Amino acid sequence: MSQHILVVDDEASIRDLLKTYFEKRGYQVTIAGSAEEARAGASVPTVDLVILDVALGDEDGMELLGEFKYRWPDLPIIILTAMGFDDGLVQEALDKGASGYLSKTLPLEQLFLDVQRVLPREEEGRADERF
């Protein structure tokens, strides 16, 4: 079964880009355009990782980060932002349990590397899992 990423961003173009990008790399992707949609999507027990925009239209992404980490402490969450690298935001994200913090201006390959860092691909058909 492929790993499942929840992409939360209020910009449809970013959601669609990330969905296409990660599906082409073998991931299952669910998209959410609001905090409310994100809560519904994250309640699915198969979400392995969340990519979360810090500035959602309906709610602060940092508050949603804190809520998600409270509910699911082991769920990796990568913060994605157009705000750049504000030291205060980076520190707040890390303090609330974010697994990474990236600018939307970086190449998609950098986000992919961060996803691979926090969500290593599982080898299919490993012998030790069969017994």
Give a brief rundown of this model.
The chain is 39% helix and 18% strand. The protein is α/β, with parallel strands linked by helices.
Structure overview:
The structure is a single chain. The chain has five helices and five strands. It is α/β, with parallel strands linked by helices and 131 residues long. The chain has a domain of 58 residues: Response regulator (Rossmann fold), CATH 3.40.50.2300. Strands 2-1-3-4-5 form a five-stranded parallel sheet, with helices on both faces. The C terminus is likely disordered.
CATH superfamily (homologous) name of the domain at 50-55 and 67-118:
Response regulator
Proportion of helical residues: 25-40%
- What is the radius of gyration computed over CA atoms, rounded to a whole number of angstroms? 14 Å
Q: How widely separated are the two ends? A: 18 Å
